[in-house]
Amino acid sequence: MEIVSGRTGSPHVASQQFRQLVEGTVGQESYILTSGENLEPELASNNILKIRSGMMSHHGNISSIKIGTYDEVELTNGSQGMKRIDLVVNRYTRNAETNVEANNWVVITGTPVASDPAVPAYTVGNLQEGDLTDDCPVFEVHYDGLNVTEIKKLLDVADNLGKMKTELAELNGKINNRKNNVLIGKWGSSWSLSTTAKNIGSSKPIVDDDCYKTTTGANATVTIKQSGLYCVTMYAQGAANQGASACIQAQVIADRTIIDDNYVLFGSQYSYNGFSVNVNMSRIICLENGTVLSPQIRKSDTSGASATTGSSYMEVVKLA
Prior knowledge:
Layout: H1 15-25, E1 30-33, E2 41-45, E3 48-58, E4 61-74, E5 83-94, E6 101-108, E7 133-144, E8 147-153, E9 157-158, H2 161-176, E10 181-185, E11 191-192, E12 198-199, E13 212-214, E14 222-224, E15 228-240, E16 245-258, E17 261-272, E18 276-287, E19 292-299, E20 306-308, E21 313-318
Parallel strand pairs: 1-9
Antiparallel strand pairs: 1-3, 2-3, 3-4, 5-6, 5-7, 7-8, 10-21, 11-20, 12-19, 13-14, 14-19, 15-18, 15-20, 15-21, 16-17, 16-19
């Protein structure tokens, strides 16, 4: 073990160690970091690509175009009647004799074809293993005949910590906002389970706000009033009678197809000889305006006598 961020009396911090730090914080893949103009491309002509200021990370290696400046990359002419895709890569190199490292823009020319051009191959290196060359594809240049028809940006702009903190605070605010969640259930009295699914019932007051409309009583439901991303949770409780065994099944059913069917949630637990069991389940799912959710409980077809205490409930939370 050796110290990296402390004084030792002689130069000792290596570029490889710095790349390890970047990989551990930013990530090991390729990203544009939020800086300057985020390396935005501008086609100045069919032969000149301008790349605006910004910074990027590739396998822990940081490179940049100074703020207030831009780089110019020379492009190759297209071919009459042919299609082609060129790659603009940010190429890392290290001189094997001097160990001097550099980053430069390199255009890798694709093969002209009549249709369906392929992206050309590039060098994939591993800087932590000491490879001398490592290409990071940043842009695709699409040609149709002599003309450039598209400059395709290949890297995402990574969110900085400030933006992620703001977005996390907004999400937490939505989750903690009582207006964004609703709970039905807690019927309050026990009843025998049958092999036919039955609504868990609700003793909660009716809710009718911007997000939800609920019904109460023996047929309790939640109607979604805003399309969005929701977390649906159900807790169900049941027990087989003394001397019996039962599979207690709980489910949340929608009045329409959700992905493949109308099951939002389904779970089960086995009870023996009077021992109660709990079924806890949740799911994050996109729900449309007008979707009606119904929480239900039953026993399986082969189960013996069993009952529920009436403490089951369903909670719905709007996330986004």
